[in-house]
Amino acid sequence: MAQSAERLVGRDADLETLTSLVGLVGPDGSARPGGGRHVLLAGDAGVGKTRILRELRGRAAADGRQALVGHCLDFGDSAEAYLPFTEILDSITTALPDVVAQVADVHPGLLRMAPVARALGGADTAVQEALDRGNLFAAIHALLEHAAEKAPVLVVVEDTHWADQSTRDLLTFLFTRPFDGPVTIVASYRADDLHRRHPLRRQLAEWSRLPSVERFHLGRLSDDDVRVLVAELAGDPDAGIDVESVVRRADGNAFFVEELVQAAGADELPWDLADLLLIRLEQLDATAREVVDTASAAGRDVSDELLEAVAGLDRPTLDAGLRQAIERAILVPREDGYYVFRHALLGEAVYDDLLPGERVRLHQRYVQALSGDLATGSAAGLARHARLAGDHETALRAGIAAGDEAAAAGGPDEASQHYQQAIAQLAGRAGSGQDTQRLVDLVVKASDAMVAAGHADRAGKLAREQRESLPADAPGLWRAQLMTVEIETSFAYVNDVSVRALADAAVAELPEDAPPLVRARLLAAYARALMIYRRYDDAERAGREALALAEELGRTGLAAEVAATLAGSWGRPPQDWIEPLREAVARAAKVGALHPELRARIQLGFALDAADRLDEAGENYRCAFELGVKRGVPWAPYAFDARIAWLDHLHITGRWDEALALTDAYGIPSALWPWLESKRLMIEQARGADVGAEARRLRPSWKQEVATASESAPVEIRAAAARGDIDGAIEAYDAGVTALTVGWGKWFGVRARLSAIAVGAIAGAIPALPVGERPDVMAEVDRIIGQGTRPAGSKQPWGLEGQAWSARLRAEGLRAHWLAGVSVPEQDDLIEAWRETVAAFEAFPHVHELAWSRVRLAEVLRAGGDTAGARELADQARAAAKLLGAQPLLDHLLTLGTTPQRSAAGPSSQLTAREAEILALVAAGRSNGEIGKQLFISTKTVSVHVSNILAKLGASGRTEAAAIGRRRGLVD
């Protein structure tokens, strides 16, 4: 009886679709339309994903393509970083060694992934910079590009439902970075394995949104196809197989069909698939069953060398057992000397059928074999076997080695996972002082990995918890090490840590004979903290010592980090930072220290901003943002900061569509999303969307990232004022100020802007207030003005942005008093204040705020009779509003009455737009003087309009006019 079908049954249409998607030519030699896309191949376990991919690879080879295959394995919590790409790199190394050497010359990190470098005990754990995986991602991309120069490349990654986090991140990088050459990736996964919290679910949703990626689901076979497949498998039509029973029981699953046909001679077939698979094992003799059992404990595949060492059989006996397992289609030999179960489900069934004691003993034998002189296996594999064997000491030692191995290969997620398991083991036993020192070192390693993986908050909390659990008489060195991690991570996320006090305490705890690297890291963090608190001389001294130690130790990344701190000394004028920071950027780039380079670029952008070189600053932010994306770390602290800064530049310069595109970011960590969301809401509100409630929902995130308040609080303020809720606007302002004061200190940089926005929003709502309530509101306005006005004698220079918002605050304050009729300013003072504001926003070219400032000046000029000047300003504002799509601004310009409008045909009794506006205010009980102040027109002009309204409506007075207006629907 045949064990598997030679012909692919029931998949012709699926294969044609898949072939077309990846851009292969058809059997007739014609090119497929719409090809060259990456494909996510989904399907239930056993449905035939591997079989159709094997056929696809065959077609690729016939088409002259290179087909590279990598497999993900179910290692559970002993994940090995980049496992499928290690296999792919091995294939390219064998076929194209010159290409690998060429890429490795430019990207040395590539060699960290090579199988020989990752063999058990082969990882170089000395270089913590290896945790920067940006170079590794770029290396894999470059490798595939160079390989594609030889021939088009088809990359197949199977079973991504078992993929480690680093592999998933690398796939994201490859999917989002276009290839110049013909490179196509197909990733398969079990759709039925993706439970709600499966880590692949979110990334599948992200990948599916990319224009370069197509999702394709491989369905079950039809009943007719199952009948054909049964005939193919049985071979002999007289085999006595109940075909219809197979059709009914298999439910279109190809693997299930094969097993049912194979077991057709059994007396009674079970309905459960696992039990059905075990029928195949009953056909093996004792030796073959022992071989298969031994292989199942290894996982999906096992090398010949390791299997021989663990099985304990002489070579002829082992070969006989292997031959029988292969003939029965349980194991399949690979060209690289490994044996793999024909289907993962089969291996799982074999392992699950073992008795608990059998499993433990098998894992013990694997530990013994892998702890010997074998050149196969990995630390992660040894850790897994030791843990399942109950060998805690070996599991601890191998787990640490696995973390070092993952770190050296640029897999921070997997490294932190292994380290945390080891920490849990050490913390759970009453250890010696040596164990505690080992634990402290592990916490530092785990924290480095967490930070590299984008989880600085978790790293800081881990270090703090371990420090607080140290005994009272613990050596100062341990406390200093853990405090260093807390300080470093505090720079990356908002928390309640007093960095200044912690830094001083850490330096006090550090012994004179501390290891040089520990001293260098602490002094580097200390220097940065001192810069923040303006202790510039102390910061320089600490930084210089840290830099010397880092250079002496060959820690190029740490040296670049310290250089960035020293270059951005806040004790000098901003223009004096620029050249030192350019040198710091170049230094970090030269040694491939990505995060110090990003940080130096961000600081350079800030310096350029402070020096009023805004276009240069924007270009610098763009370069930093694109560098983070290119290197596969778009959400790393400084890469994300660059995205925010570049988004702000686009917003200020009026490129709103580009700015909004940056807010639609897939894969963003949940902790960062609110900040980006607040930027989106700000632009959407300016275009007319009612997003006040959405902004309010961001308040809980202010504690995690206080910068969110600087954008979402203004959105709340404007939304509240727009609905006439002045109390709500004031409450939103106060809440924002409180949050920002806690996070940034008493005088934070955006205080003038927040106050100007609040005063302007409240001013717009004042005319609708009863006269008696206005003094109390103006008292609040004056308080806000006082809080936003820069203290006299401030030493820091005020940049263009600060000057613009300070001018705006003064002008909005005068406008509020004008509209309220409380301490009314002279019109000349009001005009002058708004002229200064317009000039300030012309210097600081915020397109939207400049347009609004021009509108306010136009209103004042019109009230004073300068209609020509008002019209010119309004026309300039209208042009900007149309460019931005700022509908509220356009609507306001219509009420201003300076828009040229087509004459309306109709009876003379029809009210003009201005008359309808004045009628609404009359109905609200406003006097002519109040209406004039609100609309910035003279009282005499209002009186003329009111007379016209009474005549057109045939009303004898204001009350009757209001009633007629309501009756006719002219007034709400």
Automatic annotation (TrEMBL):
One of the GO biological process terms: regulation of DNA-templated transcription
Origin: domain of life: Bacteria
Keyword Nucleotide-binding: yes
Pfam family, one: AAA_16
Keyword Metal-binding assigned: no
Domain spans labelled HTH luxR-type: 904-969
GO MF annotations, alphabetized: adenylate cyclase activity; ATP binding; DNA binding
Protein name: HTH luxR-type domain-containing protein
Protein source organism: Nocardioides luteus
